[in-house]
Amino acid sequence: MKTILCVEDETKILYTNKKMLTHDGYIVLTAENLAQAREHLANTTPDAIVLDIMLPDGNGLDYLQELRAAGCKIPIIMLTAWNRSNNIARGLELGANDYLGKPFEYEVLLARIKALFRNIEQIPEFIIKDNFTLKVRSMEVSIGNDRIKLPPVEFFLLLLLLENEHKVLKAEYLYEKVWGAEMIDDPAAIKNAVSRLRKKIENSGYTISAVYGEGYQFEKN
C-alpha cells in the first residue's frame, strides 16, 4: 500500500483528497503548512507528495528546491492556482514530476497519481550507452569514471536524446516531454537547457547538434 503526503492549506481540499485517496487504497498523510510537511518527512518517507505552491509559511516551489537540493527523490506533483507556463516550467525545472492546476476534479488528481506510479515502475534502474551510465531512478549520470551533476530537466533531456540517438527531435516535442507543457511562452528554455547540457557532456565523445529549422540530434563528435 502506497503512502501519499498531501500538503495543502485549504482544509476542504485537503480532507476531501484524503478521504477520496484513502477510499482508493492509499495511506494519506496531511500537512496544512511546510512545518507540518517537514515533520512528516523527518519521520517517514512517503511514496509521493502532492504539494501546493501557496502555503501560509512559505512557497511550495522553494520547498521543492530545498528537497531536491537535499537529495530527496520522492515523486512530487505540484498543485497550483498560478496556471501560467512560466511557473509550471520553473516547477518542472526544479524537479517536480507533474503539475495540476486549480481548480481540479479529484478523478484527474487520481489519474495523475496512478500515472506517476505507473511510469516509475516502468523505468529501468540503469541505462548504459558507451561511456554513459544513467541511474534513472536516482537521476545520477556518469561519463566513464566521472560523475556529473544534472538538474532534473537536463537529466530527462539527456535521457530522451540518448534513447533517440541520431534522430532529429523537434524542440516542441522535447519541451512537451521534459517540461510536460506546450512550448508557448518560453521558447528559449529548450535552447538554454541544450546549451548547458552540451557543455557538461563535451568530454563524452557525443554532442547535441542543432539542426536548423528541425530540432536537435544526439550524435557522436
Task: Kindly describe this structure.
- The chain has 221 residues and is of the alpha/beta class.
- It has 2 domains: 3-122, Rossmann fold, CATH 3.40.50.2300; 126-220, Arc Repressor Mutant, subunit A, CATH 1.10.10.10.
- Helix content is 43%, strand content 26%.
- It contains 8 helices and 14 strands.
- The strands form 4 sheets. It has a 5-stranded parallel sheet with strand order 2-1-3-6-7, sandwiched between helices. Strands 8-9-10-11 form a 4-stranded antiparallel sheet, covered by helices on one side. Strands 12-14-13 form a 3-stranded antiparallel sheet.
- Strand 8 and strand 9 form a beta hairpin.
- Helix 6 packs across helix 7 and helix 6 packs across helix 8 (188-200).
Write the SSE topology.
Layout: E1 3-7, H1 11-23, E2 27-31, H2 34-43, E3 48-52, E4 54-55, E5 58-59, H3 60-69, E6 76-80, H4 85-94, E7 98-101, H5 106-122, E8 126-129, E9 132-135, E10 140-143, E11 146-148, H6 152-163, E12 168-169, H7 171-179, H8 188-200, E13 206-211, E14 215-220
Parallel strand pairs: 1-2, 1-3, 3-6, 6-7
Antiparallel strand pairs: 4-5, 8-9, 9-10, 10-11, 12-14, 13-14
Q: What are the low-pLDDT stretches, counting only 5+ consecutive residues below 50?
A: none
Q: What's the architecture of the largest domain in CATH terms?
A: 3-Layer(aba) Sandwich
The first-to-last residue Cα distance is 47 Å
Number of helices, counting only DSSP H or I runs of 4 residues or more:
8
CATH topology of the largest domain: Rossmann fold
Encode the helix/strand succession as letters.
Answer: EHEHEEEHEHEHEEEEHEHHEE
Structural class: alpha/beta
CATH class of the largest domain: Alpha Beta
Give the fraction of residues assigned to helices.
Answer: 40-55%
